[in-house]
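Protocol step 4 of 5: obtain the predicted structure for the target chain.
Materials: sequence only (see below). No template structures provided, no constraints applied. The aim of this step is simply to have a reference model before the mutagenesis design in step 5. Sequence pasted as it appears in the construct record:
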Amino acid sequence: MLPYIGALDQGTTSTRFIVFDSAGRVVSAAQREHRQIYPQPGWVEHDPEEILRSAQAVMGEAMAGRGLAATHLAAIGITNQRETTVVWNRRTGKPVSHAIVWQDTRTSDYVSELARQGGQDRFRAKTGLPLSTYFSSWKIRWILDHIPESREQSEAGDLLFGNIDTFLVWHLTGGPDGGIHVTDVTNASRTQLMNLSTLAWDKELLDAFGIPAAILPKICSSSEVYGEVKEGSVCGVRIAGILGDQQAALVGQACFHPGEAKNTYGTGCFLLMNTGEQPVQSKCGLITTVAFKFGNKPAHYALEGSIAITGALVQWLRDNLGLIGTSSEIEALGRSVADNGGVYFVPAFSGLYAPYWKHNARGVITGLTRYANKGHLARAVLEATAFQTREVVEAMEKDCGASLEVLRVDGGMVENDLLMQFQADVLNRPVVKSSINETTSLGAAYAAGLAVGFFKNTEDLCQKWTAARTWTPNLDDDRRREMYRLWKKAVARSFDWID
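Step 4 output (structure tokens):
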């Protein structure tokens, strides 16, 4: 058996390629950031060709860094930022526009119009999703409506749609010269165009959103051989796994059994709980999504609480206000004060996602006095992540009728000890970090490895999971209740800011 497995992890702010051994240890890695493009307030874009170049570059850098050849890799898995939408020409491979990123809110008028005709939950029974600017459906519609000639070209079969996974796989497997146009069920479940029960594109949904079926990729499982890379440093290696990034983290955290959950702290924050082989419809503001589907086995579903702005708020403090030079400096700044000084920051920059789904909310800072300083603001920024997570945990527990005893955590922000301790404090339950930091990439590697026999089965993967650290609650009950009350009061101030 070949000794290693690869994972291409294309995230909201950067692209990484990581090579793992059979124990799940990192052998080699490379990473590159890409531009965040903000043409107008509420608009967020990426350059798909820049992302493709970054993907090709990091694969080459990671392989060269340890002197590896393509023949050392059993397969490659891909994980990606979800919902971010690309439409491109099937003959040239060129995108018709920049990618519209999942955070983008330009389609809010579309959402409001359709919601007036049947309510925000009119497609929830089929898709598990509320009407929101978050998902891919409206982003596709916007491109077809606003990019000259794109609707005519799409109806003629000249254009292709994909989230970033599809765009990368198509180019890596040949592009205009026979590239494979596929996605997996986890990414398809985020388009609002797939029926959760049939795991197929749904004609009623396509008609409602005005999207021609000809542009859509084939829906596959999350773990199977899709094709081979046609050129570059990993030429000839099979692509055998695709997972949306949050589902990949669920797999990387070995949450293969119903009731197991993880929270990923990245640009946004995403808490997923495995609910087994039947979808659970949320009554508390969560979304229902596909967790994973391995080969011919039944799909597993998940409840998800999606929070738009967490790590991105730290970046905003760094880039827009200049209060810190690097993101890691926020912990020291937050520790420069004993508490938040009464300051609460609700980062509804792109509206509020779970459990509110208010696309017309906007960010607010409340509780400011002359006493407040930049340390209090830094602390409020970190606490916003923990408070939003508690809201999602409470909604998930109500939907499932059971208590979440322990929260498994991963992502870049788990290195912030101040945040993780406050997360345990505000949740009043243990928070546990995996011994492997790169759980999202690892999940993609697991999916690919299962498809080609590199890993035996999911029980084998469960044995590889170990805890690196546990934070336990250490906050007075009265203080916890009062802080959470004020947080909820601050959230209410953000509602309906946009008329």
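Step 4 remarks: The chain has a mean pLDDT of 93. Residues 374-400 form the longest helix (27 residues).
Proceed to step 5.
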